[in-house]
Write a structure and sequence with these properties.
single chain, 113 residues, mainly beta, six-stranded antiparallel beta sheet, three-stranded antiparallel beta sheet, 52% strand
Length: 113
């Protein structure tokens, strides 16, 4: 069965693998778009960039901004505020624990709560 692509205001995501141990998503972030500024209560995720440039803002105080290129990776732990920005059109993987609904949005450019 082909993974279902879910449209997002910033691009799209699709679940490549989901089981009782981990989840792998493929995500596409459009240039000059971003996801919510958010954190997770329990979920840990590792971001692995496949193509393009992805800026990630991470930190609970003054966030640190870093641009990630193809083959760069970063792990984001629970309770850590973060946000991804498309510096260019960008394709990346998110490998995470299984808590898919564990999203606390702090700020969102598209009016999502």
């Amino acid at each position: 069965m082909m993974p279902k692509q879910l449209k997002k205001p910033w691009g799209w995501e699709k679940i490549v693998e989901q089981n009782d141990k981990y989840v792998v998503k493929e995500l596409f972030m459009k240039k000059d778009h971003c996801c919510s500024r958010q954190y997770h209560e329990y979920k840990t995720e590792t971001i692995y960039v496949l193509q393009g440039k992805l800026k990630i803002s991470i930190g609970n105080g003054e966030p640190k901004n870093k641009i990630y290129n193809a083959t760069d990776r970063v792990t984001i732990y629970p309770q850590t505020i973060h946000r991804m920005y498309g510096e260019t059109d960008c394709l990346y993987l998110e490998c995470s624990t299984t808590e898919l609904d564990d999203v606390v949005r702090i700020e969102d450019d598209y009016g999502r709560v």
